[in-house]
Amino acid sequence: MKKFLYKLIAAIVIVTIGYFCFVYYVPYSEGVRSGDLIKFSKKGVFTKTWEGELSQGVSEEQRFAFSVEKGNKKIINDLQKYQGRFVRLSYFERYRTFFWLGDTKYFITKVEEDKERQTLYKK
Q1: Quick check: 67 and 101 in contact, CB under 8 A?
Q2: Is residue 86 within 8 Å of residue 117, measured between CB atoms?
Q3: The whole model's pTM is what?
Q4: In angstroms, what is the C-alpha Rg of the chain?
Q5: Distance CA 41, CA 21 (A)
């Protein structure tokens, strides 16, 4: 009976670790979105996460909410610098997210200022 119990516990641990590794390392989708960076802030009560919003049009429905992992200091600094400007964001989407990583399933991997659209907007 003890052998069976040990095997059952080991199987549960292996499946749980496999699930968390799959959710964390396997992206569901990847892509690029561009628009006006309207919000970027650090929020949370117990675990602070970086969250932002990108406006892709005139209406409220065309907003892209995203998260940034804590270790990406360059991306965090770039997003703070480009707030209020047109940006192009490369991202990946996870199947699910963990509360300590962010509120959304979309995580930013690269930030570029979209200077071409910025100059068109100013005209």
Answers
A1: yes
A2: yes
A3: 0.79
A4: 19
A5: 28
Tokens, residue 22: 């799959």
Domain 27-122 in CATH 2.40.30.170: no
Residues whose CB falls within 8 Å of the CB of residue 122, separated by 6 or more in sequence, listed in order = none
Give pLDDT tens digits along the chain (123 positions). 888 899 999 999 999 999 988 888 888 899 999 888 999 999 888 888 999 999 887 766 788 999 998 888 999 999 999 988 899 999 999 988 888 888 899 999 999 987 766 555 554
Only one residue has tokens 């749980």, namely 16
Q: List the domain boundaries for the chain.
A: 27-122
Block residue for tokens 């909410």: 65
